[in-house]
Specification:
single chain, alpha/beta, Rossmann fold, 3 domains, 17 helices
């Protein structure tokens, strides 16, 4: 079933992208992730995949019992041809009511926190350097005061005029620590505390829920409105527009993923005559539909002027997904060092690389117990940003470091993390883990194919796994060139 769900998502992808384009026509769509087809945040695509899986079962010759306790999905599936609903549908209105209360409380809290952040950092407005090139980045813990940036490496160190603006996800104390005399500032300092207190509490995505997917849209709207993310996105948009008006930067580059706030930012820059560069900072696998232009209403307005891919494989995928050739360049990668061959030992341990999604990580730990029971030694590497509290147990132990630091391994089991790609490039056998009931984004290029397995088939897949040939690092990652980036950001001599 895990493999069937993974395959169904491929079939559902065009449906989600078409639906996302329609959803994006409303003014509040940029406050949500379903209209961006962002599968790591919205599970609307997963629900569309479940629709196809159940529809295939209903069209078969056998009677199949499908147990569903999701109130929206139950009602959606019950309307499919060949499906007969048994019993009472799961309660709906209480769930929606509780989510609405939770969302209101979350947005009120966000408004208060953002107002306090704006007050704490308002003095940074005076440090603005108008007309300079700027990197707009997230508050990554690996960024430093000496100009090194987790997303753009030493670029600030090599271009003295280049500044850094921090996304509103960065806490005020972290923003102050990176300030460095005004070269790094926070968007919070440009926001209005009054706006935070009076406008963020009402930030919600309210799509028109009609048509064959009406129950799924109602579900997506309820879930997205059940927290504070819409308020945070509205605050990001408010602050970035005010910063553009105050600073009038010459050009802005940022880690591009084509989310709603980025679409608004690209449009705001274009209206103000500010050049933009969207930098691919992570892999673009076949599931990461938010990068596609198909969900945009106006690509000429909502895309950056230049989109920099990390290598030819990503550039090809972006072109297939509708990014115009006039926008595409291969600017190389800042975040990944060239892959060195890593030692392979058929009698060595299995390296279990957990993803940032904690529900998938917990499934992988449970699957790792089966490997331990099959006499495999398992090294568990938790995601550094979202650890799940793994404790050593028989056959399983915590990895002593990252993959290059643990020595020879038998194979690497991964899901939705670039560790799998790094292992593949380093010549190690890899197995992509398929979780039950949810989707783990496939972050690999289309070729060469690699084995995939669910928990039940993982032990056999590990035994059968061999190093995969046919993937050239030069097709995946090109080292970023400072000279080209200097030309793009400053217009100076490359």
């Amino acid at each position: 079933m895990a493999a069937a769900l993974d395959a169904a998502f491929e079939r559902a992808a065009p449906v989600w992208l078409d639906l996302a384009r329609t959803l994006g026509q409303s003014g509040d769509a940029r406050l949500a992730h379903a209209p961006s087809a962002a599968g790591t945040i919205s599970d609307l695509g997963l629900m569309l995949a479940w629709t196809l899986v159940v529809g295939d079962l209903a069209a078969g010759s056998e009677d199949v019992a499908v147990v569903c306790d999701d109130p929206w999905l139950f009602r959606h599936l019950a309307a499919l041809p060949g499906v007969r609903a048994e019993g009472e549908p799961p309660p709906l209105h209480r769930r929606e009511y509780l989510l609405a209360l939770r969302g209101l409380a979350s947005r009120l809290r966000v408004g208060l926190r953002m107002a306090m952040a704006a007050i704490a950092l308002r003095r940074q407005r005076r440090l603005t350097r108008p007309g300079t090139p700027v990197l707009l980045v997230y508050g990554h813990p690996a960024s430093r005061t000496d100009g090194f940036d987790a997303y753009f490496g030493p670029l600030m160190q090599n271009i003295p005029s280049l500044g850094r603006m921090l996304h509103v996800d960065c806490l005020p104390e972290r923003a102050r620590a990176l300030e460095d005399g005004g070269r790094t500032l926070s968007l919070h300092g440009f926001g209005s505390p009054l706006y935070a207190l009076t406008r963020l509490w009402s930030a919600r995505w309210r799509p028109r829920c009609h048509g064959p997917h009406s129950w799924l849209l109602r579900r997506a709207a309820a879930l997205e409105s059940g927290g504070g993310q819409a308020a945070m996105i509205r605050w990001q948009i408010h602050c970035q527009r005010r910063w553009l008006d105050a600073a009038k930067p010459a050009v802005v580059a940022w880690p591009w993923e084509n989310h709603g706030w980025e679409r608004d930012f690209a449009a705001a820059c274009r209206r103000r005559g500010i050049a933009t560069i969207g930098c691919q900072h992570a892999t673009i696998g076949r599931h990461e539909l938010n990068h596609a232009a198909h969900s945009l209403n106006d690509p000429a307005l909502e895309l950056p002027d230049r989109i920099s891919a990390v290598g030819p494989a990503a550039a090809r995928r972006l072109a297939e997904w509708g990014i115009p050739a006039s926008h595409l360049v291969i600017g190389g990668v800042w975040r990944f060092a060239p892959a060195a061959p890593l030692p392979f030992d058929p009698a060595g341990p299995v390296f279990l690389a957990l993803p940032a999604q904690t529900d998938i990580a917990r499934q992988m730990i449970a699957a790792g117990r089966r490997l331990g029971a099959a006499d495999h030694r398992v090294l568990v590497r938790e995601h550094p940003m979202t650890p799940v509290g793994f404790k050593p147990e028989p056959g399983m132990e915590a990895a002593s470091g990252s993959l290059p630091q643990v020595g020879a391994v038998r194979a690497v089991v991964f899901a939705a993390t670039t560790v799998g790609l790094e292992a593949l490039l380093a010549g190690l056998p890899v197995v992509r883990f398929l979780p039950e009931g949810i989707l783990a984004n496939d972050i690999l290029p289309d070729r060469p194919p690699v084995p995939a397995a669910d928990a039940e088939g993982l032990a056999e897949a590990v035994v059968m796994a061999r190093p995969v040939a046919g993937l050239a690092e030069s097709d995946v990652f090109i080292p970023a060139g400072t000279a080209a980036w200097r030309q793009w950001l400053t217009g100076g001599t490359p």
